[in-house]
Specification:
The chain is mainly beta. The chain folds into 5 domains: about 170 residues, Galactose-binding domain-like (Jelly Rolls, Sandwich), CATH 2.60.120.260; about 160 residues, no CATH class; about 80 residues, Immunoglobulin-like (Sandwich), CATH 2.60.40; about 90 residues, Sandwich (Immunoglobulin-like); about 130 residues, no CATH class. About 0% of the residues lie in helices and about 45% in strands. It has 2 helices and 45 strands. Strands 2, 3, 4, 5, 6, 7, 8 and 9 form an 8-stranded antiparallel β-sheet that branches. Strands 38-39-40-41-45-44-43-42 form an 8-stranded mixed β-sheet, with no helix packed on it. Keywords: Signal.
Length: about 750
Amino acid sequence: MNRSRGPIGRLAVAALVLATAVMGSLAPAAGAAPINVALATNPGGNGPTVELSHVNAGSPEILIDGASGNGSDRGTNWNAWPESSGTTVTLSWPFLVDVSSTTFHAWTDCPTTTSCGGGVYIPSDVEVQTWDKESEDWVAVTLAGAAPMMPVGVDDVRDYPISHEFEEVRTSSLRFTFPGQNRPVGATEVEVFGENTDVPSIDPDPIDPGHPGVFIEHEQVELRTVPGELPDLPDTIWALYEADVDRADAGLSPLVNDLAVVWDADAVAATDYDEAGDSFTIPGTVDAVALSATVTVHESLSDEVSEVDPASTLTTPGLAPVFPATVTVTYADGSRSSGVPADWAAVVAGDYDAVDDFALVDATVAGVVREALGVFFVVAPSPADAPPVLLLDFAEDSLAASGWHTTAPRVSVQADRGVTDSEIVALEYCLTDCTEGGAGWADYSFPVFIEEQGEVTFRARATDDGGRVGEAEIRIRIDTSAPTTTATEAVEGRDAVVELNASDGEHGSGVTRTVWSSGPSSDPNSSENVMWGTYDPAEKIQIQLSTERRTYVHFRSEDAAGHVEDVRTLEYEPAEEAEPTPTLEPSPDPSPEPTGEPSTTPSGRPTPAPTTSPSTPALDVYSTPGFHNVNGRRWYTTCEPYSQTIRCTTQIWATQVTGENGTFANRSGWYFNNLTYLPYMSRTQWAANPLGRAGAFTSDGRQWRTECDTAATGRGGCRSFVMADVVHATKAADGTWQFRQRHEWVFNNIVRFG
């Protein structure tokens, strides 16, 4: 049901010229240099909207983000197939702009040939037009000189700026056309140079909406027909009146089912309904309020009902609710029709005695009982001297699913006369200093553009000619920027430690997490790199640099509003420190026995050489956090969120050979055993990662191999091994130790599929 007084939210394209205390003036200073008014970030919320003919890829905002370029990816550009009506790029501003030059950054993937099938070509011509309000038509600009020469393509160059200079014109809209173009065209950016003005491009919203038409809702008439036949129009419709005291005292339901309608069928031409696929409207009036019937034309009409629209109604305490006598249905062929009779079940007495009571009611439509098709609500009657009613809404879709506005919102205000039908004489809004006599109140004329960040309270009030004041307010959370992450680095030899610090600004929504990845690829999404994981400030990022290839650390942060920071990357040259090579001779006096007693906590940094994986006991030490005593060995496991799964790190108390001052020695302590990725991701989700599929690969200059679904892994899992230098210690008969170094496969991690 739609409000007959006008839509609750008006999707206006204008922004209010806010008081100087709020955002100052849009008008430039005298003699100011022209700016690119086509940017989405154009000052004062005067960024244009963009309309494009047939879009193959990307979105309209691509053309006004300030980022032209030579990229090869069609997804970062706009491109369109030619249309019979002409390919166009149209920009429209909330406030008029004075402009005198443009640059259209044409994009092509076919710069030097005329025969690359499906390619996007350099346009053969570009024309600039502006909207003329007086003639209500597009008019070509008057060039200040000769028309620009169209560029000639060069191999590997994809971005071609085409500039026009013309006599200054004040306009609300500008568009680019491509005369004679019969091949696809594209662009990376459009620039329009000039100045903003304080002159709105549309008429202001009315303070008083006029007579409310007595009722607040009415039936939306939808009809269907076949070619050549004008459908029968209903003589009456249902409507919902204000639930006021006078109607309640008289025992009258707010909903009435028999309001007479006068239709103007003569306004419809026979050609409007002579073919299947046509649609048209028929104007009408009811109780001095304009309405219309929407008619669609179909080759034939199905009688099979596939869906029935639900209905709702209002009542006051103690008054039995009245439902619409007819409902709107959708038929099996997709056609729709209102005016289909509905037989409503009786409402249980006592279900409508108190304010805020409500209940669901069944109805029989087309011979079928439709359960819970209707709902009624019990409301308190509006007093006879009720003040105006205010409706606040957002003039565009700036609200994200997070509940934060991720682009600066525009708030629209609509005042309804309410029960008294007294004319509204003042409509105001306020952001700060909003006491009764506060200086922050300003007259409302256009949707209000709000640039403040954080939590903002928007207030509005309407005063009628009887002195009654209606008030409303809405709390708005605004965060238009992504968080920023900085890095502090410390490098010693092959060891690099990176500490990240993320901030979302004083009034931001707050950083929710920071993620990072590292590896040999500069591409943050490369499968060569370690999967993205959540950054832990306590552990920082600790990596070992390659001696053969560059190493990259990628990171970004996210905030509560839903912003995701662009990936930032640190690049490290190959480390100069050579791989440590143990001496071939054993130390003269090795420790005959392992040193030290087990400690209660593992060391902060395990050695890179793990022990061989033990057989899995009843207790899964690889996925159960904590200390464990299994098979006579001591284990320690920690688990953490990692990308889309959980990663567990298992260490074992063991004796290993370590190199010290060119000699070998046995040392006991906590050592890395393996990583286990728990079964939260499917085999398909792991398919792009070499840890999740059988085969061999090289990463960071090291050889890896992965086996899956073997006797060792079991069905639904993989194990990966890395080739590493391992030193083995053997105790001779005379009690001395001998050490040998081998290059062999070492168990590293387990992947379990969900």
